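ok so i was messing around last nite and threw this chain in just to see what happens. nothing serious, just curious
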Amino acid sequence: MRFDAISVIPQVFDGYLGASILGRAAARGIYEFHAHDLRDWTHDRHRTVDDAPFGGGQGMLMKPEPIYEAVEAVSSMASPRPHVVFFSPCGTPFDQGVARRLAGMGRICFVCGRYEGMDERVYQLADEVLSLGDFVLTGGELAALAVTDAVVRLLPGALGDEMSAQDESFSDGLLEYAQYTRPASFRGMDVPAVLLSGDHGAVDRWRRTSSLERTAALRPDLLGDVDLSSDELALVDAILHNRETGEGAPA
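result:
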């Protein structure tokens, strides 16, 4: 899979993408990432990519001409044509479902904003506009890195253990279950006995229950899209009831 990113500071991608899982996945040819300097598509001696907004206001906006030229040029550099992604608070919330969908595409091109935003006309180039949340970043590079990380982890071979991605949070719509490692007892806190039992069926049941409890307590908004058994529904209802009344967790 190929990623392209158009940015006024393309060098920021190098360190993160070259490390750990992403670095190893790139070395194995699972994906490739190409960062492009937006200023390469300017035509004045100052390599200007921004200008003052019409109507006044604070800050500067990114000009449409370099962005149009950059997207058109980068799109022609390889096949297939990229799925062009912009970032904006107005965009679709990015989640694991979006990551899975993007992982099925052969090529993605991120357009990374800076300053106070972009000329509205550039969004005509977008196949998709994404938002990472209700907060403001200095630039779109960090958002592009986050999406790349989430997508690459889903590509075959990226994690080595193919079950790793299946067990992570949101893989089945729920938060991931609680996890423990050695020592079995630490400062009076003991690992649940079932995890030491060697009974794989019991461990699987405990993990499912742990995921349900965590999701119901911390992210109940996720439960609407999860297929639950009658027993699981009863457990979730009890947790939500106790959460509303301030009671403890159900026995």
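not much to say yet. The chain has a mean pLDDT of 93.
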